[in-house]
Amino acid sequence: MKILVGQIAHETNTFSNVKTDVESFKLWGWDVGEAVFEKNRHVRNFVGGMIERAEELGIEVIPTFSTFAYPAGVITAEAYEALKGELLSGISKSADYDAICLSLHGAGVTESTEDLEGDLLKEIRKMVGYKIPIVVTLDLHANVTQTMVDEADVLLGNNLYPHTDSYEIGIEAVNVAQSILQQNLKPTMYLSTLPMIIPTSTTNLAPASDVNERCWKWEEKENIIDCTFYHGFPYTNIAELGVTVLVTTNGDPDLAKQAAKDVSSYIWERKEDFYQKQPSPKEGIIQALQHKGFPVVINETSDNPGGGTPGDGTYLLRALLEEKVENAAFGFIYDPEVVEMAFKAGVGSSIEAELGGKTDNLHGEPITLRAYVKCLTDGYFTQSSPMGKGGKVNLGRTVRLQCDGVDIIVCSVKAQTLDEQIFLLHGIDVTEYKIIALKSSQHFRAGFEPITSKIITVDSPGLTTLDFTTFHYTNLKEDVYPLKLVSSMNKEVKN
């Protein structure tokens, strides 16, 4: 038995003014053939799980093409054609394979299509036909479409946010492919779409954790292969947007529909529980200082590069400086210009700079400051978070600045902070600080919850703010909650 493995992944924030081009993908990985193994083997991600499970089962793995780009604006037509061409070329060069396992995302938007994954799967089907099983892994934030369902044999997504289960879902993809080929599995999927969008909601806590429990209860039934609650990616101006429930059974479409409708109804009943107003940066800092324990992690959810923001927002950092907070570390802000200035000045020097606020006018104005250059690094480290553990990270040249009572890490590549490694790289022990400030919505929890005393999420203007009313949605096919109240239950939970 032979399977092809490949990956194309992007979470597109269409409200961003930074388009995603070929170089955006190549910055994080443009791997062909054996390079796919080198990048993903022994890494806790989707492709790592696929590779290692296939090898455990004695299945020959044929690597094709793997790429991903950090979330940002719409993918250019040129970039999409290039990455699609690489994957299709990798498939066409392979022979005598039995199945295809792909790691996609589910929220990719290009200049030519709102549904990257659906379009890509249709192109693959033109090449391989419908007898070859295609099993696809998706991110929990996929905006799942009926086209994806129609073109894949099985879609499997994260249950957890932070996505600490990607490796296990990759394993499951190979198991399912093997069952289709060798155990006569007849997968039948049913997709239920809800007219609602939800804020980034960790599955460590209710209500998302309660929805997962309901899904897992359905999975206890003999013929249900998978029942997944997809949160959707709300920061995208497309027609098919929102929460979905996808159920896969072994040849039982009625059971798939029954389970999907049950979970969808439960989500709708709990909808108000998803919308919780968070404090402003200043309010969050006050709460942190009143808390007796340490460290307190303050996460700036509105400027989460993992959701397509620029990573150079200044609202939280400015509040820390204005409140004259002592014993705080900010890790990190994206500003290659300031990094270059610090490298030229050298360790032990002081620089005067305009920090952050350079990508757009939404995430705050640049901060004028005088800072001491404490440390310079190459930006390389190995990820230790349970999410993607073992992955190699390169944030480009980085600098640790000190301004009053705040240590500020500045990087040359934007990314969200997943674990303490970026702090350790700069000689900072997070457990010794009162406040650790970072840019992330929920993924940081996997690395920081075990070592923090308290977590405070703060919100402000930004491309991943929890206030959806600040976005101008123009392409929606129909009204979605909470932008507009959807009154009829027949419209609330769609067939």
Topology (SSEs and partners):
Layout (H helix, E strand, L loop, with lengths): L1 E8 L12 H7 L1 E3 L1 H7 L5 H11 L3 E9 L8 H16 L6 E5 L12 H13 L5 E5 L7 H6 L2 E4 L8 H17 L4 E7 L14 H12 L4 E7 L13 E7 L2 H17 L11 H10 L5 E5 L14 H8 L5 E7 L1 H10 L4 E6 L11 E11 L2 E3 L9 E3 L3 E6 L2 E6 L9 H5 L9 E4 L6 H4 L5 E5 L30 H4 L3
Parallel strand pairs: 1-3, 1-4, 4-5, 5-6, 10-18, 10-19, 11-17, 11-18
Antiparallel strand pairs: 2-3, 7-9, 8-9, 12-13, 13-16, 14-15, 16-17
Q: Can you offer a commentary on this structure?
A:
The chain is α/β, with parallel strands linked by helices. The protein has 2 domains: 2-274, Rossmann fold; 281-465, no CATH class. The chain contains 15 helices and 19 strands. The protein has helices at residues 22-28, 34-40, 46-56, 77-92, 116-128, 146-151, 166-182, 208-219, 253-269, 281-290, 315-322, 336-345, 421-425, 445-448, 489-492; strands spanning 2-9, 30-32, 60-68, 99-103, 134-138, 154-157, 187-193, 224-230, 244-250, 296-300, 328-334, 350-355, 367-377, 380-382, 392-394, 398-403, 406-411, 435-438, 454-458. It has an 8-stranded mixed β-sheet with strand order 12-13-16-17-11-18-10-19. The chain has a 6-stranded mixed β-sheet with strand order 2-3-1-4-5-6, sandwiched between helices. Strands 7-9-8 form a 3-stranded antiparallel β-sheet. β4, α5 (116-128) and β5 form a beta-alpha-beta unit. The longest helix has 17 residues, at 166-182. The model has no long low-confidence stretch (mean pLDDT 96).
